[in-house]
Structure formats: structure tokens, C-alpha cells
UniProtKB/TrEMBL annotation:
Record Pfam families: Acetyltransf_6 (PF13480)
Gene3D superfamilies: 3.40.630.30
Organism: Plasticicumulans lactativorans
PANTHER family (UniProt xref): LIPID II:GLYCINE GLYCYLTRANSFERASE
Entry protein name: FemAB-related protein (PEP-CTERM system-associated)
SUPFAM superfamilies for the chain: Acyl-CoA N-acyltransferases (Nat)
Domain (BioF2-like acetyltransferase): residue spans on this chain: 176-293
InterPro entries given in the database record: Acyl_CoA_acyltransferase, BioF2-like_GNAT_dom, PEP-CTERM_FemAB-rel, PG_Glycine_Bridge_Synth
Domain of life: Bacteria
Signal peptide: none
Amino acid sequence: MSAITDRDTTAIVIRQLTPDDHARWDAFVVACPEATFFHRAGWQTVLERAFGHPTYFLYAEREGVIVGVLPLGRVKSRLFGDALISLPFCVYGGVAATDPLVRRPLIEAACALARELGVDHLELRNRSRQCPEWPCKDALYVTFRRAIAADADANLKAIPRKQRAMVRKGIDAGLVGELDRDVERLFDAYSESVRNLGTPVFPKRYFGILKDVFGDDCEVLTVTRDGATVASVMSFYFRDEVLPYYGGGKASARDVKGNDFMYWDLLRRAGERGCRVFDYGRSKVGTGSFSFKKNWGFEPEPLYYEFYLVRATHLPDVNPLNPKYRLFIAAWQKLPLWLSRRLGPLIARSLG
């Protein structure tokens, strides 16, 4: 625990989250405009249960009231180094605060923790620039967010004409969207999709833990045709936002526009549920995912991933666009699906 005094002589205290404080933390996150779904306390449980990664969820108090949070997780591996991240496996993170005076103490506490742990670097995944003096990756990732309406017809008309035609092809193909209680069909479609992209898959139990921890705010929508799985997506709900996060399609999805229909069906359902923001999530600039989301009429917003270097001398570059991973990706794409599902979790847990 550390304390500083602000110009109003009111003490700011930095503490670490304990299970007894989860309800207080989440109440703050829901009320804080800067906070995202990835600031929720449940991620501490997810990271520890699914991957065994140590977590350090810091929060700032003034007079016993939480006024800022900074969730952190440590990911250490021989392959990809040792990092303290806000937050591993999440696209957003960094400080969320209702009092600007607590931002600096929280970041300083994170830097001190990074030095104490002896990690290679500290990474804050921000939607806006927070530490302009730090090295930053501001041209690699973008996010796509757009307002949606309650009316399905209005949402359909808001999709550009060519993409709307893809959605209608899925409708004409007889595709049906169904909500799942478990993650079996999701894992089937998602694991096949990421194998085809050359990416190691997460373990099935990770998706089960997400549903268990986040309950009704974690939903699986599966698209079928004549009873057969075509595509599936796991989405998160936060305030009035929906965030499709883990999704993929089977080989049959391309011919019947399964992914196009799936995201339309999710958007339609979310609008009717009361959501007013569709967060299409993070993509790397110049990738197929980036182009797909732009085709829906979403405009990219830059993400600012800022780094405090401790033992490292340069920014890490652990992403599929790095040329040194090209041969690995090509080899992974050729793996039998059963083998990729067995080996993938051993690698994916270290990617962060």
C-alpha cells in the first residue's frame, strides 16, 4: 500500500483488489465513463482460473471511496518474454478514473510493481494517449465502434449496400441464429477458424470460464443451416454496448455468407435488447478483419498501446504480422484440427 497527498490535502491510497472488494470495484466500473468491460473484476478470476497468471488489480481510494482502477496481469514465458499488461487477452485496459488526480499515482504504482517483479516491460492498452512520454504502438491496432438503433430495419439500412447484399444472401440461404447455453459449438467453429488463420487456439475451458464468471453478460450465438453449425460468436455485454469477441466460421460459412449473417443477427438482437453501441473490436491495420469491418460502414479508431520498458531495450513485436512468425503460421495452418486443438492452448496462454 502507498499513499500520496494531492493539492486538496486529501489522501489518495493505492490498494490491491481482494475477493471481498469485487462488488465495490464493479460498481465503480459500471459508473465510470472511462471504464470498459475489460476493467471488470471478473477478469482477475478468469486469468487466474484459466491460465494461472498472477494478477495485480490496483485501485485508488479517497476517503474510503474508489476513484480509479488499473487491472494488471503478468504473462511470463520463454517464447514471448515477461510482461505486466493491462490487460492480458483484452483489447482495452489502462487506468479508468473519475478523478484525474489518481491517474498518475496508479500508473506510478504499476511502474513500481513492474520494477519490483523484474518484468521486461509494462503495457497499458488505452483507447486514448495517457503517457505521451512512453514508447507507443499507435499504428498497429484500431477498434471499430458505431451507434445502433432499436429498430432492425434501421440497422439493416445503415449497412452499406454491398455488405447488406451479403447479409441478405445469408438470410436467403436459410441460416438461423440460436443462443447456446454451453460453448461446444462455439469452440468447434472458432478452433477451426483460428487454425486456418495459423493462430493457436485457447483451451475450451477458457470459454466455459468466461461464461461462468460473466453469466448473462457473456452470450454465445451460433448460426446453423439445416441443423449443422455454420459459425458461432461469443459476445460481451456492458452497459448499453455489445462486443462480439471470439468468433469463427466452419468451411461452409464462406459459401452461405455465414459470418455476415452472424454479425447481422447479433447486431439485430443487441438492438432489440437495448444496446446502443456495437463494438466490433480490435483489428490489425491492413488485415482481412480490418477490411471486413470497414465494409460494414464502421470507421477505425486508433488504439494506443503504451510501454514502460524495465529490462527490455526495445518494444516487443509479438504479432502475426511480424515476418519471423511467417513460417510458424504457415506450418500451423497445415496441422490436423485435432492436433491444433491439443497444442494450441500450450502456446496461446503465453500470448497475452
